[in-house]
Design a protein that fits this description.
Length: 351
């Protein structure tokens, strides 16, 4: 049994599905079901006794204590977070509440639970904190990629809240000995991603003949990782990672945003020739405030220590992703609610 937080969101849901398929072991999935949480992501587990979904907040310490004592998990895998940089710019409060205070609440309850475990279970227990490469700040064009020893320099309220949570996790290991592991991962893409993020937003807009809004000059660089590879990296860190360590996870696939959008348009042209060329929809819009220029991940540590490397290449992963969205129009339409449209108006209305 493991306890997953945020398992109805993009990466969390992919992880839960992947975990049950590969490990076959039961999962308690605690998720608040914010706008980003979607039970449809877990529909295939509806009648699977190995999946126990609990709607709740990581800030609800009574609930967490009760879940830990009832289910006695051997690990907590902590995905729950506010995850979108643009939302952190227009409303940072929730990011502090969930990412910082929520992680603190979870750590406190994990510490109490772990401290009371008998010796073998205590030695086996892990608290795996899922974090981001954004904590390291922004790179110049010729800078070396982020390694685990790169100093923290978060630039957005989102990145700052994740950095704060990483520091708390580190402190709980250093001070109390809680067996924590932190993973810092680059940009994920793949099925089930909420269409506020670059790739699914562009697919969604292209499908609806809407403008494809590229921030600034479109030359900001991200390192793209297929979500299934991230899930495999987390499983490796859980199985073989050393307590107290951090592991960078990346796709070894640096691309600028314009290249990503143009590649995506080419795939759309092939799969939806009736509305080609999709690149005609590209529009340059006002830049994101404080927009980090470049992220790149040095994932050597997890490769040599834990034997993990990404399996997917970007072209094939992107094609699979576009196909998934085209094959699941209902999933996207169900998300296209009033709340999502209100966000599009807020973020893009005056750009
Ligand atoms: P997401 O926004 O798709 O999902 C977040 C999930 O957390 C949702 O299901 C939401 O309902 C849940 N949640 C939010 N607040 C909660 C609370 N207070 N209590 C319980 N549940 C709550 O996010 P994602 O993209 O799947 O990211 C998951 C994790 O991975 C985050 O911690 C994020 O920082 C990290 N990460 C994401 C990426 C990426 O590219 N998406 C890359 C690196 C790291
Ligand atoms: O690096 C890991 C991080 O990647 C995760 O920690 C975050 O949770 C995740 O949201 C992601 O952050 P980014 O800000 O890099 O992702 P996003 O998809 O929002 O944007 C990717 C790039 O595309 C970024 O340079 C901004 C740009 N962009 C984004 C949107 C939504 C656009 O040009 N237009 C857009 O409409």
């Amino acid at each position: 049994m493991i306890l997953v937080t945020g398992g109805a969101g993009f990466i969390g849901a992919n992880f839960v599905l992947d975990w049950i398929a590969t490990e076959g072991a039961p999962v308690v999935n605690l998720d608040k079901l914010t706008y980003a949480g979607n039970l449809e992501n877990l529909a295939s587990l509806k009648d699977d006794a190995r999946h126990c979904f609990v709607k709740g907040d990581i800030n609800d310490r009574t609930l967490i204590a009760q879940l830990l004592s009832t289910h006695q998990p051997r690990a907590i895998v902590h995905f729950a977070a506010e995850s979108h940089v643009d939302r952190s710019i227009s409303g940072p409060g929730e990011f502090v509440q969930t990412n910082v205070v929520g992680t603190f609440s979870l750590l406190e309850e994990a510490r109490a639970y772990w401290s009371a475990l008998a010796a073998p279970a205590k030695a086996q227990f892990r608290f795996l904190h899922v974090s981001t490469d954004e904590v390291y700040g922004s790179l110049g064009p010729d800078d070396p990629a982020f390694s685990e020893t790169t100093p923290y320099a978060p630039n957005s309220p989102y990145a700052a809240s994740k950095a704060a949570s990483d520091h708390l996790v580190r402190a709980y290991h250093h001070t109390y000995g809680v067996p924590t592991i932190t993973t810092n991962c680059s940009n994920n893409y793949g099925p089930l991603q909420f269409p506020e993020k670059l790739i699914p937003l562009m697919i969604f807009n292209a499908l609806h003949g809407k403008p494809l809004p590229v921030y600034g000059d479109g030359l900001n660089v991200r390192d793209w990782l297929y979500v299934g590879d991230h899930c495999a990296g987390i499983r490796a860190a859980l199985r073989r990672g050393r307590p107290g360590e951090t592991y960078n996870i990346g796709g070894n696939s640096e691309k600028n945003n314009l290249d990503v959008v143009n590649t995506l348009c080419a795939v759309m042209d092939e799969l939806r020739p009736d509305t080609a060329p999709h690149a005609k929809l590209i529009q340059f819009v006002t830049d994101r405030p404080g927009h980090d220029r470049r992220y790149a991940i040095d994932a050597e540590k997890i490769r040599w220590e834990l034997g993990w490397a990404p399996a997917e290449n970007f072209a094939a992963g992107l094609r699979k992703t576009v196909r998934w969205y085209l094959d699941h129009p209902q999933w996207t339409e169900n998300i296209n609610s009033g709340a999502y449209r209100a966000w599009l108006d807020l973020n893009y209305g005056s750009r």
